[in-house]
Amino acid sequence: MINSKQIDYIQNDCEQVLAGQLGTLTALKNKSLFISGANGYVGKWLIELINHLNEHHKFNINIKACATSISQSAKDYPHIFRKKYIDLIDKDIKNLSEIDASVSYVLHLAGNPDNRIHSSNPVKIMKDIILGTTRILDACNRLEKLLNFTHFSSGHVYGQQPFEAMNVNENTFYSSTGTRLLSYYGEAKRASESLVNAYRSQYKIPTTILRPFAFIGPHQLIDRPWAINNFIRDGLYGQSIRILGEPTTIRSYMYPSEMALWTLRAVLNPSEKNVFNLGSSDSMDLQSIAQIVEQSFGGHLGVSTNSPPGALNKSKFIPDISKFETAFDLPLKIGTEEAIRKAVTWYKLGGLSYGKL
Predict the structure, then answer these.
(1) Which domains does the chain show, CATH number per domain?
(2) Residue 260 belongs to what H/E stretch?
(3) Residue 270 has what pLDDT?
(4) Which residue ranges does the record assign to the NAD-dependent epimerase/dehydratase domain (predicted)?
(5) Single pTM value for the model
């Protein structure tokens, strides 16, 4: 559950990100959208932004929100899901047989990016991704009004990004690491992209593929196994910000209001270019990220590391987003530092009540 101050903060984010963008989204007016994985992080933010369009700008968008346990999510987040224009579909996407004929846009978000699950149950993860994508594509193929199928893939389809490499663009792939447990998620997502492209070729389904990287901001549960989440959790507990990995590892974070806007713009993609990275190109090392978090909590907690720089394997996970920025004339506005500071502000509004602390 989140409190009224946190809800107001998100509403302000929505209004700010939509400034100057309403005209680019008018094709969504009076349309029906089907969203799989609607109760996940991306799904919540998309619906937050659509709710804002409906309630403040009269877009009259209908949403078919599909996910396992979506009914429970509606109890936990009534301000998101308890709307007269949202139809809740409590269903595993692997069991989907049809989508309402009124739907014009389908967004396939279902999938769990938590690498703890990828390593503990890789067979289930691969089945969920491939079978789920097949089911929803089959349902889309029967939709007469379908204007676009938007598939959320992953930045992990590129393989392990070399530390010295440039930010990865949509045409650069590195050697497969298919024997490693943590690579199975990326390999399954790559296979799902092949399915999407096959349906696009054989059945002429209009498709857009988005490859998300890293995000931070409201609605992200901070028990997730990523460095930035751990840093913020330490801060909320009043502890020293602990860097458990290699301090020189490079990361970037996209703020979710921009992620949601970019996704809706991609849904309306008029271009033949149908594959785009989704994330931030504004990168920095974990040491700097930890220091930003520490400063956001007042600058008195300190930053600690378990090992000196260079003692552990360092990694890089940074997209080149120039293709999206050019295609949609939509530059990234919120850099990594601002995204982190905004995220911390929001979490502090909830105290220790959010994110399974």
Answers:
(1) 4-216+256-280+319-333 (3.40.50.720)
(2) helix 256-267
(3) 65
(4) 34-279
(5) 0.94
